[in-house]
Specification:
Structural class of chain B: alpha+beta
Radius of gyration of chain A: 17 Å
Radius of gyration of chain B: 17 Å
Strand content of chain A: over 45%
Structural class of chain A: mainly beta
Helix content of chain A: under 10%
CATH architecture of chain B: 2-Layer Sandwich
CATH superfamily of chain A: monomeric porin ompg
Strand order of the largest sheet of chain B: 2-3-1-4
CATH class of chain A: Mainly Beta
Order of helices and strands of chain A: HEEEEEEEEEEEE
Order of helices and strands of chain B: HEHEEHE
Distance between the termini of chain B: 42 Å
Oligomer: heterodimer
Strand content of chain B: 15-25%
Largest interface: A-B, 34 and 29 residues
Distance between the termini of chain A: 36 Å
Shape of chain B: elongated
CATH topology of chain A: Porin
Largest sheet of chain A: 12 strands, antiparallel, barrel
Number of strands of chain A: 12
Helix content of chain B: 25-40%
Number of domains of chain B: 1
Strand order of the largest sheet of chain A: 1-2-3-4-5-6-7-8-9-10-11-12
Number of helices of chain A: 1
CATH topology of chain B: Alpha-Beta Plaits
CATH architecture of chain A: Beta Barrel
Number of strands of chain B: 4
Chain lengths: 211, 93
């Protein structure tokens, strides 16, 4: 299989209708990471510790509309293709947690499963995510999130330089309207941040730091 | 005369023995500066390493060792694997 072309991962992306919102959910061995994602539909704060380059326990807090979730789980690298000038990855994340509802002071067990696929070289980037939150029927239906991203680097930044990416993200929560968001991704040393605004005017800000 | 020759030769050999050595390793999958930090962190922790230079453009890492120290190719491959990458054995300087 020739993985120098992104077609394989694009095909997987379409198959699973996914996307990856942030950088890899598992970093290098020993990395402690803090990630936050914020857009019009959800907010998430996650902290991970990469015990191995393929395994990271993760603690996260998620707010979707007026529903709050807390999860404890693991992010795992299922498969990595290291090529001379590119890299492809498949990640699976599973978590168990609680959903809180302020108005009723009730809480219920919940769980989340996410599948991430990405491929990138120094010029092009594509990723996809499918994520599902399983809920108690009393609190509502399961929540399904699909995202797809395509990006390119306008210049090739080297190590310890400011790297910049133009990315277009398409996301859909449940059966709602697909939100298309052009965004800029920057990273400099151990900090990554993304800013964007959807075509409907909804803002996006993501942040990640490796410690 | 002979004494001087041996003195110079000894000095030369001593300098050679303590000169720091570099190794260049080509790395598969090293495309992202944000993710490649793991390589620098991993190697910097090794007692033998004086300096690590990551070159994304050429997909290579240059390891500079402390005086008279080095790491075996196997150890370098293992450290790269722990960082999530693979040594590119097909590429040479």
């Amino acid at each position: 299989m020739n993985l120098k072309t992104p077609l394989f991962f694009l095909a997987l992306s379409v198959l699973f209708s996914l996307e990856q919102t942030h950088a890899h959910p598992v970093a290098f061995q020993g990395a402690k990471s803090i990630l936050s994602e914020s857009d019009s539909s959800m907010k998430e704060l996650m902290t991970t510790y990469s015990y191995r380059y393929y395994l990271a326990p993760a603690l996260s807090y998620v707010q979707i509309e007026k529903n709050d979730f807390a999860f404890l789980g693991v992010n795992g690298l299922l498969k990595r293709w290291n090529q001379p000038t590119s890299q492809g990855n498949i990640y699976l994340s599973v978590a168990q947690g609680l959903e809180f509802r302020e108005q009723t002071n009730k809480q219920h067990n919940t769980s989340r499963v996410s599948l991430d696929v990405d491929w990138e070289d120094r010029r092009y980037y594509t990723s996809a995510r499918y994520s599902r939150i399983f809920r108690s029927g009393e609190f509502g239906e399961d929540i399904e999130l699909k995202k797809l991203r395509l990006g390119f680097a306008p210049y090739l930044g080297n190590y310890k330089e400011l790297n910049t990416w133009f990315i277009v993200q398409a996301s859909q929560m449940d059966e709602k309207v697909v939100e298309v968001t052009p965004l800029l991704r920057f990273y400099y040393q151990n900090v990554l941040w993304e800013v964007g605004s959807s075509l409907r005017g909804n803002w996006l800000f993501n942040f990640m730091i490796h410690i | 005369m002979i004494k001087s020759f041996f003195a110079v030769a000894t000095l030369f050999l001593s300098l050679q023995a303590f000169a720091s050595v570099e190794k260049t390793v080509f790395v598969k999958g090293m495309v992202c500066a944000f993710c490649a930090q793991g390589i620098e962190k991993k190697f910097t922790k090794q007692n033998e390493i004086q300096e690590v230079n990551v070159d994304l453009e050429n997909h290579k890492v240059v390891l500079k060792f402390k005086e008279s120290l080095s790491l075996s190719d196997e150890k370098i491959a293992e450290l790269l694997k722990d960082s999530g990458y693979t040594v590119d054995l097909e590429r040479k300087n």
